[in-house]
């Protein structure tokens, strides 16, 4: 797979079996709960099938200077590029099945055992299509929209008069300076803020958030909802941390549909025994 648009042959065979206008005898697949399934349909959309994108990525080695707070730009770029590849492959599956968008996207990163510098990036969500064929719900450049909103939040967003454009994200892998031996000894018995560490983590979070915000601006969004800020370390050592900001960029619904016409849901109870 040389780029984000190639779909494996096995995936193409799976997509052929999904329910669509040209294949009414097919089946849809979805990771929606029963309530999510209900609310997505109440919002005027039908699920088509699960969309998956995967990328196995080797990260280059970059070391931070012992006493300096600094971004590890090589690793930041690698984490960002690998996620983009997984997302674009997921979006390509959605486009191939004729979906208007993808709801409930999960973006996962897994460290693989055979090499400490190799990570697997997986994007998965449920492709949906508007039941009445409205084309105004597409995302940027006419591609299927992507959203990490749940089925409930998706219905609520549409009911509020907004629609999702795409998932936007920002990543920053940052090296936090080590404390000097004499400084550590001098402060070992005191309650004191470690201002250089506070500033390092503050700066790294701001970089991730700013990059996510810039993606939303370039997508033409009015805002970003459901923002989540992850902090993680993928085996890089105790003084290297990734801040990853992700959310769904949204804009007001145009003339495609009157939000007031979206019906209210009926409560579905799930009982476990």
Topology:
Blueprint: H1 9-16, H2 34-42, E1 45-58, E2 70-71, H3 73-96, E3 101-111, E4 118-130, E5 145-146, H4 151-159, E6 162-175, H5 181-186, H6 195-218, E7 223-232, E8 240-252
Parallel strand pairs: 3-5
Antiparallel strand pairs: 1-4, 2-6, 3-4, 6-8, 7-8
Helix pairs in contact: 2-4
Kindly list the characteristics that best describe this protein.
alpha+beta, 29% strand, 273 residues, globular, Translation Initiation Factor IF3, four-stranded antiparallel β-sheet
Could you please describe the fold and organization of this structure?
This protein is an alpha+beta fold and 273 residues long. The chain has a single domain (9-249), classed as Hypothetical protein apc22750. Chain B (Translation Initiation Factor IF3, 2-Layer Sandwich), CATH 3.30.110.70. It contains six helices and eight strands. A four-stranded mixed β-sheet has the order 1-4-3-5. The chain is globular, with a radius of gyration of 22 Å.
